[in-house]
Design brief:
Blueprint (H helix, E strand, L loop, with lengths): L3 E7 L11 E7 L3 H13 L4 E4 L5 E3 L4 E7 L6 E4 L2 E5 L4 H10 L2 E2 L11 H6 L3 E2 L2 E2 L4 E7 L5 E5 H4 L8 H4 L2 E8 L1 E2 L2 H18 L19 H7 L6 E2 L2 E3 L7 E3 L5 H19 L8 E3 L3
Parallel strand pairs: 2-5, 3-5, 4-18
Antiparallel strand pairs: 1-2, 6-7, 7-13, 8-14, 9-10, 11-12, 11-13, 15-16, 16-17
Helix pairs in contact: 2-6
Length: 289
């Protein structure tokens, strides 16, 4: 058994922003079977719960979460068959991209460097450099709210910008399959490396963050609008608008989660006041217990 359950434990070490309060329970199942048993137990006890990969796009307030936060990072198997790669929910998108390159399959190069997992990535239709997971998504195996198994097709997932049906129907992704293009492994890896170089050059990867803080507004870029409002470097506590890329809010050291949340709200309000554009957080913020 790889299942671990911690009581009244800090969420900060599990979240990419390295901030956040305590959860009533922090659970790390080691298999899909353990995940299902854990979900069944939480439902039986009528406990609140959230299922996350590595919380690369989630920020908990300092008040924490009065329930179970289930991290799937140990459920990370990846299987290749022909042009199809199937990955479990906790598999890192980096590992998925590397598996594709290893098998000379193209289509996932853009995902190299996205810090999330397959489950979270599909949930929010993660993307970068003009690509999105929906571009090569094939099918997903999910648990329904009643813990029955259901297979969803690309059409049934109803993908849109940073969104899928999973944000509405309460389904929990177990694994996902991606149908890729046959290509040259070296060329695929070269493209991945080029994207990674661009990330390192333009993004503040040396600091904890949740990646791009805001969704891209129609016809513009969040980072451009924030910079236009002279907010680069603006800080509240240990939280700061990155001077390297204004679209990132970073933890420069010891930031409280509520400092980060206040800064997100301040930036959004300031940009709206000065430009008329309302920035919507791409980060999922869990504000209260």
């Amino acid at each position: 058994m790889k299942l671990s359950i911690k009581e009244n434990a800090s969420l900060a070490p599990f979240c990419s922003m390295k901030a956040g309060g305590n959860a009533k329970y922090i659970c790390t199942p080691g298999s899909i079977r353990e995940l299902k048993c854990l979900l069944s137990l939480m439902k039986e006890k009528n406990e609140r719960f959230m299922v996350l990969g590595n919380a690369s796009n989630t920020l908990f307030s300092d008040e924490g979460f009065d329930g179970a936060v289930i991290f799937t990072s140990k459920i990370n198997g990846i299987i290749s068959e022909g042009r199809t790669i199937t990955a479990e929910c906790g598999a890192p998108l980096n590992a998925l991209s590397l598996q594709a390159a290893k098998n000379s399959l193209g289509g996932l190069e853009f995902a190299y460097g996205i810090p999330g997992t397959v489950g979270g990535g599909v949930f929010m239709n993660a993307g970068a450099f003009g690509g999105e997971l929906c571009d090569c998504f094939h099918t997903a195996l999910c648990f329904t709210p009643d813990l029955e198994e259901a297979t969803l097709t690309k059409e049934e997932m109803r993908f849109s910008y940073r969104k899928s049906i999973l944000s509405e129907n309460g389904y929990i992704l177990v694994n996902a399959s991606f149908l890729l293009d046959e290509g040259d492994g070296k060329a695929v890896k070269s493209k991945m490396d080029a994207f990674m170089s661009m990330r390192r050059e333009k993004q503040p990867l040396e600091y904890p963050s949740c990646g791009s803080t805001f969704k891209r507004p129609k016809g513009n870029f969040a980072g451009h609008l924030i910079e236009q409002c002279d907010l680069k470097g603006y800080s509240i506590g240990g939280a700061s608008v990155s001077e390297k890329h204004a679209g990132f809010i970073i933890n420069k050291g010891g930031a409280a989660a509520n400092d980060i949340i206040k800064l997100i709200d301040f930036v959004s309000d300031t940009v709206f006041e000065k430009t008329g554009v309302k920035l919507e957080p791409e980060i999922k913020i869990v504000r209260q217990r």
